Amino acid sequence: MGGKTKKATFNFHPDVLTALDEAMAEGAAPSKNALIERALLRELKELRRRRRQARWEEGAKDPVLLRDISEVDVAFKSADVETAGRID
């Protein structure tokens, strides 16, 4: 990520802080900030994945979207067959 950082203050349960200290003692990251940032980025990525999955599931129930997908599939079927014949 690099670049500028901005100070933020958070409160953690003492058990979390103890686990953080243990992870640092094991060399899990160059700093507590780096480890927390890495964990937070991983969690945020998972949240985005879940939101995207929910949108796909919602779209799978949308008759207009399903009709559009079907129409595109039909429109490209002959093109796909033609192209497949040229692939060696």
Brief overview, please?
The protein is mainly alpha-helical and 88 residues long.
Task: Please tell me about this protein's structure.
This protein is an all-alpha fold. Helix content is 73%, strand content 0%. The protein is built from 3 helices and no strands. The longest helix is centred in the middle third of the chain and has 28 residues, at 32-59. The two termini are 42 Å apart.
Strand content: under 5%
Radius of gyration: 24 Å
Pattern of helices and strands: HHH
Assembly form of the protein: single chain
- Identify the overall geometry: elongated
Q: Distance between the terminal alpha carbons, to the nearest Å?
A: 42 Å
Number of helices: 3
The count of β-strands is 0
Helix content: over 70%
Category from helices, strands and their pairing: mainly alpha
In round numbers, the mean pLDDT is 91
| Major sheet size, sense and barrel closure | none
Unreliable stretches covering 5 or more consecutive residues: none
Give the helix/strand layout.
Elements: H1 14-25, H2 32-59, H3 63-86
List keywords for this structure.
single chain, 88 residues, mainly alpha, 3 helices, elongated
